[in-house]
Structure formats: C-alpha cells, structure tokens
C-alpha cells in the first residue's frame, strides 16, 4: 500500500483539459498550444480527422484521368487521384497489408498503384485489385479461403471539389463542402475561382514553428504594415484604401481580409502626397512588380482568405495562390504556395503574374518576414507553456468589420478552436 | 578555337563564376547586379517545377533594375535573421554558342550559417547560365539556379 492518499472513492476530478484558456473571448491563448505534443496529437484526431475539410490540391494539378499527387491531411500521408471516369478520390498512403507507403512519387499518372513490398495492387480509388500468390502455387497454400479483397482496400477519404479546389475529410460528421465553407466565405472563393485556372507551379517553405502561428498571421491585418516594410521603404503610399476583416458566422475558423482601392479617391490622394514621396527614401527602379491589371469588380490589392484547417486563398495584385498549410509536429510546419493563373490569360498578364510572384512565397518582398515572426514566437514561448498572449486590438468593438487595425479574427479563431478541441 | 583560346575562355568564365560566388558570400550584394546585363533574366526555381515545365520560381527577374531593387529591399526593407552563405561550385561545363555567347552549366551547394552559429546545407542545385561578352567583360545574360532541395528553410533573402 502506498502512503500517498489516492482519489479512490472520492468524487471524480473535473475532466482534464490539456490547455486552459483563461478568457472565453479568445483574447488570451496559452502558449502550450504551440509546443505540446499531446495537444498536437489531439489536433490530428479532433481537427484533421474531425468534422473539417482539408484542402489537398487544385483540380488543375491533376487534370487527366490517372493523374495523382501525394500530399497530407494534417500529418497523415494521403494520395489524391483522378480516376478513369474523371472523378476525384483520396486514400491514406499506407498499404492495407503491412503498412508500407504505396505511392512513392510526389506526382504522376498511373492506372493502378502497387506497393513495392509485396506487390499488392490498388485501383485509382484505393480498392484492392490483386494479391500475388493469393491462390498459392503448386503445393504452397496462398491466402486463406475467407480472405475477401473487398475488405482490404486502402483507407478512403470522402472527397469533394468546390470550383476546382479539392478537399477531403476523414469524418462522416462533416457537413457538405459548400455548407462547410459557409455563406460568408463562398462568394469570396467564387470571386477568385470564377473561371478555369491553370496551375503554374509551387514553392515550398519550412518553418520551425507551430502551424497555428501561421493561421494567426493570416488572420492578422494589424501586422501587415508593421512587419512588412516593403511599401513604406519604397514610399508606395496606400491611400484611399478600404479594409474588410470578416469571419465566417458558423465557427469563426475561416476568414477573409481584403484591402481595396477606392478608385476615385486614389488618384487625387496620390497626387497630394506625390511631393512627399519624391522627397526622400528609396524608389523601385522597376515598379511593374506592383502593377495591377483590374480583373474583378473591385480593385482589391489584397485578398487573404483562410479556409480552416489547411488552406489560404491569396490574391495580391495579380498574383494568385492557394497556400496549403501542413503541420509537421508541434514545432514545424510546411507551407506550399500553389501558384495559378486563368486559362485565358494573355501572355502579358501571365508574365505579370510571374513577376509578382516575387512579392510572395519564401523570398517574397511582402511575405518573407512571416515565417521569421512565427519562429520568433516559437522560440520565445517554448519555456512558458502556461503564460498567454495578449490579443486585445479592437476588442471593444467586436462587430467592426471595416478595419485592418484589429485582432478580432484571431480571437474568433481561438474561440472556434477551443470548441473543436473541447478546451 | 585552338587550345590556348579554349583555356583562356575557361579561365575567364571560371573567374566570373568565382567572382559571382565571392560577391554573394562576402556581403557585397551591391556588386551582384553588375555581373548581369541590363536585359538579363535571373531566376531561383524549384526542380520540381522545372521538371514539369512549370514557370514559377521563388525569385524571377527579367532585367537588371529588378536585381538592384531586390538588393535595396534586402538592405532597407526586409526583416530576416542575419546569416551568411558559403557557395561550393563544381562540374563547370562550357558550351560556346558563338564568339560572344557561351552556355554554362555547374553544380552548387549553399551552406547557410544563421545567428545561432549552426551551419546547414541550405540549398543544392545547378546553375544554367548564358553569358555574353561585353565591354566590361563576360556578363550573365541569363542565370537560372534550379534547386534540388525540395523546400526553403524559413525564408530566402540573399540571392543564390
């Protein structure tokens, strides 16, 4: 018998929560959510295998029957394919026999997929096609009589596409994809994906920080002119801008931030400030990197839209990107920038998109600092899991949506996160 | 081209490559654009895009002014951790196109050292260059750094 009193017979302790958020409005976030392995593992279960839809690919990446791409839902390796009938499918990249990864290529085209270990083969949807020596050979026995190939498919995910964006879910509880995107977000997805797109390639970036720090970053219009000094350094005045910061109404996990030029005010205001901008400081020798061909109803320079948990849709000037955010353990994430244009781009517009790719991605003039900032937070908070951040900007005006000096979207995100995680 | 001319050409282009590397590795970024022609093209491109014939890179400039803009931005606008590069190059192949134009192919490895003093292989890849003879000497008309390394650690500030 131990001398230490036990809780046996006493009232059960309150359910243990891995993280304690001291306020209900998301304005205080315990730093342990950025470094705890236990919380990370629970996120894989409740978020990435929970009732959410994870972005996998643009349909334009896998246009032909048999095309496939290896990717992830959370940190689970999955393969997204287009089958012979043109439909989309996705399966966990783990052989149903002994667990080896079946698909070893990043991308390709195949009518079937075989595991190299014992040559079990699967169709494009992940159904088991064949098992070598299933019926044995000569006096050697083969698989048991009750072996049913139909019971040994690869684990298949539910896949849906919305306007060429391919999502998958592990969960039967997830709403339909359009309902998941919600009424507030769909018009903004429609805005970018209103006509067929062409995939232009990707850039990949790895950050030694927690994936949610990047989510905070893309819901944080407050940092934009503080951390990213490109516009100010080159005296590029952004006057007459109209801002939006909108969450989705269901759970607050999705959001959109826009910055839009008021076309009438802009030219006059620029002229007024022209003298000052000539005075001092630096000027770009080639300003086409910030050129802007109007493509949509309003002249929005920045459209940053998060679709939880692993997509950020971005339009900055004429550069269009679907950013895929992939957690790699509590301390790392990968960010994949999928660049695209429209199939009907003129050669001039296509060149402008490629030139403006210099603005974003790992070497982007107005984005390279983001991963630097998230790494600073990771390093700064690791030793103090119970301490919290202070997320107060515009807290007194929670309904305001026409501002970019606000942290309201971050607070909404954490409230939604707590609900999903049971914190 | 006789043997002496070949040796001279190899010597001149090898010197250009060594100067290019020295400029980047010893924080003389302002000299970097001067090694290119005014109508140059410079790109840092993931191999996975290059292999698929896709155009996107992490940096893409199609004139020398854009190179100067990048240097000014790095010096005065962008925020990143202090770091240094050491380029190792090998396998230089030289293919003359005409008397004043040569294609070059070589390998590179960039070891990056960040503020904490740790050195890591930051990027491995190949240079595909076109150089032209100018009044100032050989200059890059085209330089494409096609990197095998699948992802960029944290960020890419200093050119490759």
Features:
heterodimer, A: 423 residues, alpha+beta, Rieske Iron-sulfur Protein, Naphthalene 1,2-dioxygenase Alpha Subunit, Chain A, domain 1, 2 domains, 7-stranded antiparallel β-sheet, 9 helices, disordered N terminus, B: 160 residues, Nuclear Transport Factor 2, Chain: A, 6-stranded mixed β-sheet, 3 helices, 7 strands, 46% strand, 2Fe-2S (chain A), oxidoreductase (chain A), dioxygenase (chain A), Anthranilate 1,2-dioxygenase large subunit (chain A)
Structural commentary:
The complex is a heterodimer of chains A (423) and B (160). With 423 residues, chain A is α+β, with helices and mostly antiparallel strands. Chain A has two domains: 54-137 and 144-160, Rieske [2Fe-2S] iron-sulphur domain (Rieske Iron-sulfur Protein, 3-layer Sandwich), CATH 2.102.10.10; 182-263 and 292-421, Naphthalene 1,2-dioxygenase Alpha Subunit, Chain A, domain 1. Chain A has nine helices and 17 strands. Chain A has a seven-stranded antiparallel β-sheet, with no helix packed on it. A seven-stranded antiparallel β-sheet of chain A has the order 11-17-16-15-14-13-12, with helices on both faces. In chain A, strands 6-7-8 form a three-stranded antiparallel β-sheet, with no helix packed on it. In chain A, a hairpin with a 5-residue loop joins strand 3 and strand 4. The relative contact order of chain A is 0.17. Chain B is α+β, with helices and mostly antiparallel strands. Chain B has a single domain, classed as Nuclear Transport Factor 2, Chain: A (Roll), CATH 3.10.450.50. Helix content of chain B is 26%, strand content 46%. Chain B has helices spanning 3-25, 47-51, 64-76; strands at residues 36-46, 59-61, 83-98, 101-114, 119-134, 137-147, 152-153. The termini of chain B are far apart. Chain A binds chain B through residues 106-107, 199-208, 227, 229-230, 232-234, 282, 284-286, 289, 334, 339, 351, 354-355, 357-358, 361-363, 365, 368-369, 371-372, 375, and chain B through 44, 46, 48-49, 52, 54-63, 65-66, 68-70, 72-73, 76-81, 150-157. Chain B: This is Anthranilate 1,2-dioxygenase small subunit. Chain B: Keywords: Dioxygenase, Oxidoreductase.
């Amino acid at each position: 018998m131990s001398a230490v009193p036990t809780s046996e017979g006493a009232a059960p302790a309150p359910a243990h929560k891995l993280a304690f958020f001291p306020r209900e409005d998301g304005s205080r976030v315990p730093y342990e959510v950025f470094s705890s392995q236990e919380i990370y593992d629970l996120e894989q279960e409740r978020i990435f295998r929970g009732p959410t839809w994870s972005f996998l690919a643009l349909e334009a990446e896998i246009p032909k029957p048999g095309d496939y791409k290896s990717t992830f839902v959370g940190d689970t390796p999955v393969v997204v394919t287009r089958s012979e009938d043109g439909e989309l499918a996705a399966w966990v990249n783990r052989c149903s026999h002994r667990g080896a990864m079946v698909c070893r290529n990043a991308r390709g085209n195949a009518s079937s997929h075989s595991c190299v270990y014992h040559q079990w083969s699967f169709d494009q949807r992940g159904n088991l096609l064949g098992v070598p020596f299933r019926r044995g050979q000569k006096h050697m026995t083969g698989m048991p009589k009750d072996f049913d190939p139909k019971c040994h498919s690869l684990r298949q995910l539910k896949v849906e596409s919305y306007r060429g964006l391919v999502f998958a879910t592990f969960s039967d509880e997830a709403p339909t994809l359009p309902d998941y995107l919600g009424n507030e977000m769909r018009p903004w997805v429609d805005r970018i994906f209103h006509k067929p797109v062409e995939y232009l390639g990707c850039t990949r970036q790895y950050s030694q920080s927690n994936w949610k720090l990047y989510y905070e970053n893309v819901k944080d219009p407050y940092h934009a002119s503080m951390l990213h000094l490109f516009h100010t350094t080159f005296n590029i005045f952004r006057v007459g801008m109209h801002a939006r910061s909108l969450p989705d109404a269901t759970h607050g996990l999705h959001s959109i931030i826009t910055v839009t030029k008021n076309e009438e005010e802009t030219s006059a205001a620029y002229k007024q400030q022209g003298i000052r901008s000539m005075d001092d400081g630096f000027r770009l020798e080639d300003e086409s990197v910030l050129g802007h061909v109007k493509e949509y109803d309003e002249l929005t320079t920045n459209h940053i839209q998060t679709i939880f948990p692993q997509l950020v849709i971005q339009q900055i000037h004429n550069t269009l990107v679907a950013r895929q955010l992939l957690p790699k353990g509590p301390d790392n994430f990968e960010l994949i920038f999928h660049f695209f244009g429209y199939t009907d781009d003129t050669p001039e517009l296509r060149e402008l998109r490629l030139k403006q790719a210099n603005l974003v991605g790992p070497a982007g003039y107005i984005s390279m600092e983001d991963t630097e900032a998230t790494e600073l937070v990771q390093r700064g908070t690791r030793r103090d899991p119970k301490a919290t951040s202070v997320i107060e900007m515009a807290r007194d005006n929670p309904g305001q949506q026409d501002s970019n000096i606000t942290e309201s979207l971050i607070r909404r995100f954490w409230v939604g996160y707590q609900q999903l995680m049971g914190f | 081209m006789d043997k002496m001319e070949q040796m001279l050409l190899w010597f001149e282009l090898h010197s250009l490559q060594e100067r290019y590397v020295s400029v980047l590795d010893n924080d003389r970024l302002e000299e970097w654009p001067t090694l290119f022609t005014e109508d140059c093209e410079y790109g840092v491109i993931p191999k996975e895009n290059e292999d698929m014939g896709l155009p996107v890179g992490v940096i893409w400039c199609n004139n020398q002014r854009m190179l100067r803009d990048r240097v000014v931005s790095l010096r005065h606008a962008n925020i990143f951790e202090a770091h240094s590069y050491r380029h190792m190059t090998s396998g230089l192949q030289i293919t003359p196109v005409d008397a004043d134009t040569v294609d070059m192919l070589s390998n590179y490895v960039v070891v990056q050292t960040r503020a904490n003093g740790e050195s890591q292989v930051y990027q491995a890849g190949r240079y595909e260059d076109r150089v032209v003879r100018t009044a100032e000497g050989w200059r890059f008309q085209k330089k494409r750094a096609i990197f095998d390394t699948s992802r960029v650690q944290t960020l890419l500030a200093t050119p490759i």
